[in-house]
Protein backbone atom coordinates (compact mmCIF):
# COMPACT_ATOMS: atom_id res chain seq x y z
CA UNK A 1 0.00 0.00 0.00
CA UNK A 2 1.41 3.40 -0.98
CA UNK A 3 1.79 5.74 2.01
CA UNK A 4 0.07 8.54 0.14
CA UNK A 5 -2.06 8.84 -2.94
CA UNK A 6 -0.10 10.27 -5.83
CA UNK A 7 -1.91 12.31 -8.49
CA UNK A 8 -0.16 12.44 -11.87
CA UNK A 9 -0.92 15.76 -13.46
CA UNK A 10 -0.39 18.55 -15.95
CA UNK A 11 -0.57 22.01 -14.37
CA UNK A 12 -3.49 23.35 -16.39
CA UNK A 13 -5.58 20.17 -16.75
CA UNK A 14 -9.22 20.66 -15.71
CA UNK A 15 -9.68 16.91 -15.18
CA UNK A 16 -6.79 16.85 -12.73
CA UNK A 17 -8.32 19.89 -11.07
CA UNK A 18 -11.57 17.97 -10.58
CA UNK A 19 -9.78 15.06 -8.86
CA UNK A 20 -7.67 17.41 -6.72
CA UNK A 21 -10.80 19.28 -5.55
CA UNK A 22 -12.24 16.01 -4.30
CA UNK A 23 -8.97 15.13 -2.52
CA UNK A 24 -8.96 18.54 -0.85
CA UNK A 25 -12.65 18.45 0.12
CA UNK A 26 -11.90 15.20 1.93
CA UNK A 27 -8.71 16.46 3.54
CA UNK A 28 -6.76 13.59 2.04
CA UNK A 29 -3.01 13.95 2.21
CA UNK A 30 -1.70 13.44 -1.33
CA UNK A 31 1.31 14.08 -3.48
CA UNK A 32 1.03 15.72 -6.86
CA UNK A 33 3.45 14.86 -9.63
CA UNK A 34 3.46 17.29 -12.57
CA UNK A 35 4.79 15.36 -15.53
CA UNK A 36 6.01 16.81 -18.81
CA UNK A 37 3.15 16.72 -21.31
CA UNK A 38 5.57 16.63 -24.26
CA UNK A 39 7.77 13.96 -22.77
CA UNK A 40 5.60 11.65 -20.69
CA UNK A 41 7.75 9.25 -18.68
CA UNK A 42 7.64 5.53 -19.43
CA UNK A 43 6.37 4.68 -15.93
CA UNK A 44 3.39 7.00 -16.55
CA UNK A 45 2.62 5.58 -19.99
CA UNK A 46 2.62 2.12 -18.40
CA UNK A 47 -0.18 3.05 -15.98
CA UNK A 48 -2.29 5.40 -18.11
CA UNK A 49 -4.14 3.39 -20.78
CA UNK A 50 -4.90 6.47 -22.92
CA UNK A 51 -1.72 8.33 -21.85
CA UNK A 52 -3.81 11.05 -20.21
CA UNK A 53 -3.82 12.68 -16.80
CA UNK A 54 -5.14 12.44 -14.16
CA UNK A 55 -3.93 9.11 -12.88
CA UNK A 56 -4.25 8.42 -9.17
CA UNK A 57 -1.66 5.97 -7.89
CA UNK A 58 -3.53 4.27 -5.07
CA UNK A 59 -1.01 1.61 -4.05
CA UNK A 60 1.79 -0.49 -5.49
CA UNK A 61 -0.70 -2.51 -7.53
CA UNK A 62 -3.35 -0.05 -8.61
CA UNK A 63 -3.45 3.18 -10.53
CA UNK A 64 -6.83 4.67 -11.38
CA UNK A 65 -7.43 6.70 -14.50
CA UNK A 66 -10.47 8.83 -15.57
CA UNK A 67 -11.31 11.73 -13.27
CA UNK A 68 -14.88 10.57 -12.69
CA UNK A 69 -13.80 7.09 -11.59
CA UNK A 70 -11.20 8.69 -9.30
CA UNK A 71 -13.80 11.04 -7.79
CA UNK A 72 -16.32 8.23 -7.26
CA UNK A 73 -13.68 6.00 -5.64
CA UNK A 74 -12.52 8.74 -3.27
CA UNK A 75 -16.12 9.44 -2.36
CA UNK A 76 -16.71 5.81 -1.44
CA UNK A 77 -13.64 5.39 0.74
CA UNK A 78 -13.39 8.74 2.57
CA UNK A 79 -15.90 10.90 4.38
CA UNK A 80 -17.59 13.34 4.01
CA UNK A 81 -19.77 11.88 1.26
CA UNK A 82 -20.01 14.35 -1.57
CA UNK A 83 -22.77 12.47 -3.36
CA UNK A 84 -26.35 12.95 -2.15
CA UNK A 85 -27.70 10.19 0.12
CA UNK A 86 -30.91 9.87 -1.88
CA UNK A 87 -30.52 7.29 -4.69
CA UNK A 88 -32.48 9.28 -7.27
CA UNK A 89 -30.61 12.49 -6.51
CA UNK A 90 -27.35 10.56 -6.68
CA UNK A 91 -28.26 9.13 -10.09
CA UNK A 92 -29.25 12.62 -11.26
CA UNK A 93 -25.90 13.96 -10.10
CA UNK A 94 -24.10 11.10 -11.86
CA UNK A 95 -25.96 11.92 -15.06
CA UNK A 96 -24.74 15.52 -14.88
CA UNK A 97 -21.24 14.28 -14.10
CA UNK A 98 -21.39 12.23 -17.31
CA UNK A 99 -22.41 15.39 -19.16
CA UNK A 100 -19.33 17.32 -18.05
CA UNK A 101 -17.09 16.41 -21.04
CA UNK A 102 -19.07 18.97 -23.09
CA UNK A 103 -17.26 21.52 -20.93
CA UNK A 104 -14.21 21.16 -23.16
CA UNK A 105 -16.14 23.56 -25.41
CA UNK A 106 -15.89 26.07 -22.56
CA UNK A 107 -12.21 25.53 -21.80
CA UNK A 108 -11.33 25.57 -25.51
CA UNK A 109 -12.64 29.08 -26.09
CA UNK A 110 -8.93 29.87 -25.92
CA UNK A 111 -8.44 28.01 -29.24
CA UNK A 112 -10.59 30.50 -31.19
CA UNK A 113 -8.90 31.33 -34.49
CA UNK A 114 -10.54 34.72 -35.00
CA UNK A 115 -13.51 36.84 -33.90
CA UNK A 116 -15.96 34.85 -35.99
CA UNK A 117 -14.69 31.54 -34.62
CA UNK A 118 -14.92 32.91 -31.06
CA UNK A 119 -18.51 33.94 -31.68
CA UNK A 120 -19.33 30.44 -32.98
CA UNK A 121 -17.68 28.88 -29.92
CA UNK A 122 -19.59 31.26 -27.63
CA UNK A 123 -22.80 30.05 -29.31
CA UNK A 124 -21.90 26.48 -28.26
CA UNK A 125 -21.11 27.61 -24.71
CA UNK A 126 -24.45 29.48 -24.60
CA UNK A 127 -26.24 26.19 -25.33
CA UNK A 128 -24.36 24.43 -22.51
CA UNK A 129 -25.01 27.26 -20.06
CA UNK A 130 -28.69 27.16 -21.06
CA UNK A 131 -28.90 23.48 -20.12
CA UNK A 132 -27.10 24.05 -16.82
CA UNK A 133 -29.35 27.04 -16.06
CA UNK A 134 -32.43 24.87 -16.51
CA UNK A 135 -31.01 22.14 -14.25
CA UNK A 136 -30.09 24.66 -11.55
CA UNK A 137 -33.53 26.27 -11.74
CA UNK A 138 -35.33 22.94 -11.52
CA UNK A 139 -33.44 21.47 -8.59
CA UNK A 140 -35.49 23.59 -6.21
CA UNK A 141 -33.09 23.26 -3.28
CA UNK A 142 -31.75 26.79 -3.29
CA UNK A 143 -28.26 28.11 -3.80
CA UNK A 144 -25.35 28.16 -3.86
CA UNK A 145 -24.24 24.72 -5.08
CA UNK A 146 -25.63 22.23 -7.56
CA UNK A 147 -27.70 20.47 -4.89
CA UNK A 148 -28.25 23.52 -2.69
CA UNK A 149 -26.28 24.06 0.50
CA UNK A 150 -23.94 21.07 0.28
CA UNK A 151 -20.90 20.96 -2.00
CA UNK A 152 -20.99 17.81 -4.14
CA UNK A 153 -19.04 15.81 -6.71
CA UNK A 154 -21.07 17.62 -9.35
CA UNK A 155 -19.71 20.93 -8.11
CA UNK A 156 -16.20 19.46 -8.33
CA UNK A 157 -16.97 18.35 -11.90
CA UNK A 158 -18.00 21.77 -13.23
CA UNK A 159 -15.79 24.11 -11.16
CA UNK A 160 -12.67 23.63 -13.33
CA UNK A 161 -14.39 24.68 -16.55
CA UNK A 162 -16.25 27.55 -14.88
CA UNK A 163 -12.96 28.80 -13.42
CA UNK A 164 -11.23 28.74 -16.82
CA UNK A 165 -14.24 30.45 -18.41
CA UNK A 166 -13.94 33.15 -15.74
CA UNK A 167 -10.25 33.62 -16.49
CA UNK A 168 -11.04 34.08 -20.19
CA UNK A 169 -13.96 36.37 -19.44
CA UNK A 170 -11.72 38.56 -17.27
CA UNK A 171 -9.23 39.22 -20.06
CA UNK A 172 -11.87 39.40 -22.82
CA UNK A 173 -15.35 40.07 -21.38
CA UNK A 174 -17.92 38.05 -23.34
CA UNK A 175 -21.14 39.19 -21.64
CA UNK A 176 -22.26 35.58 -21.89
CA UNK A 177 -22.52 34.04 -18.44
CA UNK A 178 -24.52 37.09 -17.32
CA UNK A 179 -27.40 35.82 -19.48
CA UNK A 180 -27.71 32.93 -17.00
CA UNK A 181 -28.23 34.17 -13.42
CA UNK A 182 -28.27 30.70 -11.84
CA UNK A 183 -25.07 29.67 -13.61
CA UNK A 184 -23.50 33.01 -12.64
CA UNK A 185 -24.38 32.54 -8.97
CA UNK A 186 -23.12 28.96 -9.07
CA UNK A 187 -19.87 30.06 -10.71
CA UNK A 188 -19.47 32.82 -8.12
CA UNK A 189 -19.88 30.34 -5.25
CA UNK A 190 -17.46 27.87 -6.81
CA UNK A 191 -14.88 30.60 -7.36
CA UNK A 192 -14.92 31.24 -3.60
CA UNK A 193 -14.69 27.61 -2.51
CA UNK A 194 -11.28 27.01 -0.85
CA UNK A 195 -10.81 23.53 -2.40
CA UNK A 196 -11.46 24.90 -5.89
CA UNK A 197 -8.88 27.65 -5.40
CA UNK A 198 -6.20 25.54 -3.76
CA UNK A 199 -6.41 22.47 -6.01
CA UNK A 200 -4.35 24.23 -8.69
CA UNK A 201 -0.82 25.62 -8.75
CA UNK A 202 -0.27 28.87 -6.80
CA UNK A 203 -1.06 32.00 -8.80
CA UNK A 204 -2.93 29.82 -11.26
CA UNK A 205 -4.69 32.61 -13.14
CA UNK A 206 -1.33 34.15 -14.01
CA UNK A 207 0.01 30.73 -15.01
CA UNK A 208 -3.08 30.10 -17.20
CA UNK A 209 -2.53 33.49 -18.89
CA UNK A 210 1.13 32.68 -19.46
CA UNK A 211 0.26 29.35 -21.12
CA UNK A 212 -2.27 31.14 -23.36
CA UNK A 213 0.30 33.80 -24.27
CA UNK A 214 2.94 31.17 -25.06
CA UNK A 215 0.52 29.26 -27.30
CA UNK A 216 0.57 32.38 -29.44
CA UNK A 217 -2.86 31.81 -31.02
CA UNK A 218 -5.36 34.52 -31.86
CA UNK A 219 -6.78 34.65 -28.32
CA UNK A 220 -3.34 35.22 -26.81
CA UNK A 221 -3.68 38.93 -27.76
CA UNK A 222 -6.08 39.35 -24.82
CA UNK A 223 -3.49 38.41 -22.22
CA UNK A 224 -2.49 41.60 -20.40
CA UNK A 225 0.75 42.92 -21.87
CA UNK A 226 0.58 40.78 -25.05
CA UNK A 227 0.96 42.39 -28.47
CA UNK A 228 -2.32 42.75 -30.39
CA UNK A 229 -2.80 40.22 -33.20
CA UNK A 230 -2.86 41.45 -36.81
N1 LIG B 1 -11.85 11.72 -19.65
C1 LIG B 1 -10.56 12.01 -19.06
C2 LIG B 1 -9.98 13.22 -19.77
C3 LIG B 1 -8.55 13.48 -19.35
C4 LIG B 1 -7.83 14.40 -20.31
O1 LIG B 1 -8.33 14.68 -21.43
N2 LIG B 1 -6.65 14.85 -19.92
C5 LIG B 1 -5.84 15.65 -20.82
C6 LIG B 1 -5.16 16.80 -20.10
S1 LIG B 1 -6.31 18.03 -19.60
C7 LIG B 1 -4.69 14.80 -21.33
O2 LIG B 1 -4.05 14.11 -20.58
N3 LIG B 1 -4.44 14.91 -22.63
C8 LIG B 1 -3.30 14.28 -23.18
C9 LIG B 1 -3.55 13.76 -24.52
O3 LIG B 1 -4.68 13.86 -25.01
O4 LIG B 1 -2.61 13.22 -25.12
C10 LIG B 1 -10.74 12.26 -17.56
O5 LIG B 1 -11.83 12.69 -17.17
O6 LIG B 1 -9.82 12.00 -16.80
How would you describe this structure to a colleague?
Helix content is 50%, strand content 7%. With 230 residues, it is an alpha+beta fold. The chain has 2 domains: 5-77, Glutaredoxin, CATH 3.40.30; 87-222, Up-down Bundle (Glutathione S-transferase Yfyf (Class Pi), Chain A, domain 2), CATH 1.20.1050.10. The termini are far apart. The site of glutathione (GSH) has 11 residues, from helix 1 and helix 3.
Keywords:
Glutathione S-transferase Yfyf (Class Pi), Chain A, domain 2; single chain; 230 residues; 10 helices; Glutaredoxin; binds glutathione; 7% strand
Which molecules are bound besides the chains? glutathione
Unreliable spans: none
Number of helices: 10
List the domain count as a whole number.
2
| Portion in beta strands | 5-15%
CATH uppermost class of the largest domain: Mainly Alpha
Summarize the structure.
The chain has 230 residues and is α+β, with helices and mostly antiparallel strands.
Give the helix/strand layout.
Layout: E1 5-9, H1 14-25, E2 30-34, H2 42-47, E3 55-57, E4 63-65, H3 67-77, H4 87-99, H5 104-107, H6 115-138, H7 153-171, H8 181-190, H9 194-198, H10 204-215
Parallel strand pairs: 1-2
Antiparallel strand pairs: 1-3, 3-4
Helix pairs in contact: 1-3, 1-7, 4-7
Bound molecules: glutathione.
